Known about the structure:
Layout: E1 23-26, E2 33-36, E3 56-60, E4 63-71, E5 77-79, E6 90-92, E7 114-116, E8 119-125, E9 132-136, E10 139-144, E11 150-152, E12 161-163, E13 188-194, E14 210-216, E15 227-233, E16 245-251, E17 254-257, E18 268-270
Parallel strand pairs: 5-6, 11-12, 17-18
Antiparallel strand pairs: 1-2, 3-4, 4-5, 7-8, 8-9, 9-10, 10-11, 13-14, 14-15, 15-16, 16-17
Amino acid sequence: xxxxxxxxxxxxxxxxxxxxxxxxxxxxxxxxxxxxxxxxxxxxxxxxxxxxxxxxxxxxxxxxxxxxxxxxxxxxxxxxxxxxxxxxxxxxxxxxxxxxxxxxxxxxxxxxxxxxxxxxxxxxxxxxxxxxxxxxxxxxxxxxxxxxxxxxxxxxxxxxxxxxxxxxxxxxxxxxxxxxxxxxxxxxxxxxxxxxxxxxxxxxxxxxxxxxxxxxxxxxxxxxxxxxxxxxxxxxxxxxxxxxxxxxxxxxxxxxxxxxxxxxxxxxxxxxxxxxxxxxxxxxxxxxxxxxxxx
Length: 295
């Protein structure tokens, strides 16, 4: 047949006739557009690539040699990159922003859901429902379970935080380190505090209701690492922002009790005020059947 129809339409031969209007082109300057308007049970636009080139490419007029979007002959897509990079079904050469969410499969520690191209066995994965795991070198290192418990070195933490150790060098405990190079005698090295959410939660371990505090015994250097321990407490009716009192100090193998910060003078030094309940050391046998000659 002969071509016919409007100048704004691309003509095609439909069984010998021309002039179908389901494929249109708008040539208005700044609003040019190809439009396929069809109701069909199959894809209205199909590209069959039988060669080795990409099936589809979008270029930028300012840089026509660089593809902005492409689909290769295997169906792999790329935005600002090369389709098939790292064997990915979708490769993005820039950042990704989502107005909803980005999801990954459950995966394993050896092949986590989210990892880098250069280190595919290190990242984040989801080992069970409501559970997050983190792995390095293909081994799980940290887990948040469904009840909010945290496990380090274990996938089954039994309390709020569980650290499981092999007891090898570098894997035998928790190390709290003062991070400076000017530690002086009596400086705090670190501590563990115990308190409640009634009133203010302290910002310093030395203000906690009860605390174990480590201090430097001397100015620290390579050959001088002396330290000692204080066991601190808040007396009755103390406010929630005051520094706690020192109940015991353990230093150089000696222990001071009720010392208020003073160091022990002998192996065991008990400080007291001479008042009732604070005037010495009492040793009591705790039973009701003491006989003559019993200790």
